[in-house]
Amino acid sequence: MVLEDGVLDPETTVVSIFPAPIHYAGPTEVQWHAKARINAGANLYIVDHGKKVLSMAPGLELLNILPFKVAAYDKTQGKTAFFDPSRVKTTGFRFRIRHQGG
């Protein structure tokens, strides 16, 4: 979707898997992974958490940090789609907890 939606140019983008899974331990590990990717030739880093830490870290100034967008199979569309928070409904459990005791 990133290439198809024009977020990245498909003519100049190489998509690959970096074989170093993050078991998020804190800001030091996020910076280490970012620097390892820079050393491997990456100039783009997609993160969910840690964007602020990465933007302040020395040596990562040229790294383009993109926010992670959640995508999952959408039964109503019959295909994978980005998460739409406006479609979230409160479950019966959450409704009861929220309105418990007046």
Tell me what you see in this structure.
The chain has helices at residues 27-39, 51-56, 92-98; strands at 44-47, 64-67, 71-74, 79-82. The strands form two sheets. It has a two-stranded parallel ribbon. By secondary structure, the protein is an alpha+beta fold. Pfam families: ATP-sulfurylase.
| Major sheet size, sense and barrel closure | 2 strands, parallel
List SSEs in N-to-C order: HEHEEEH
Sequence of strands across the biggest β-sheet: 1-2
Strand percent estimate: 15-25%
Treating each run of at least 4 consecutive H or I residues as one helix, how many helices? 3
Which regions contain 5 or more consecutive residues with pLDDT less than 50?
A: none
Radius of gyration: 18 Å
Distance between the termini: 45 Å
Helix content: 25-40%
Structural shape: extended
Would you report the number of β strands? Answer: 4
Structural class: alpha+beta
Q: Whole-number average pLDDT? A: 79
Entry summary:
This protein has 102 residues and is of the alpha+beta class. It is 25% helix and 16% strand.
Salient structural properties:
single chain; 102 residues; alpha+beta; two-stranded antiparallel ribbon; 16% strand
Give the helices and strands, then pairings.
Layout: H1 27-39, E1 44-47, H2 51-56, E2 64-67, E3 71-74, E4 79-82, H3 92-98
Parallel strand pairs: 1-2
Antiparallel strand pairs: 3-4
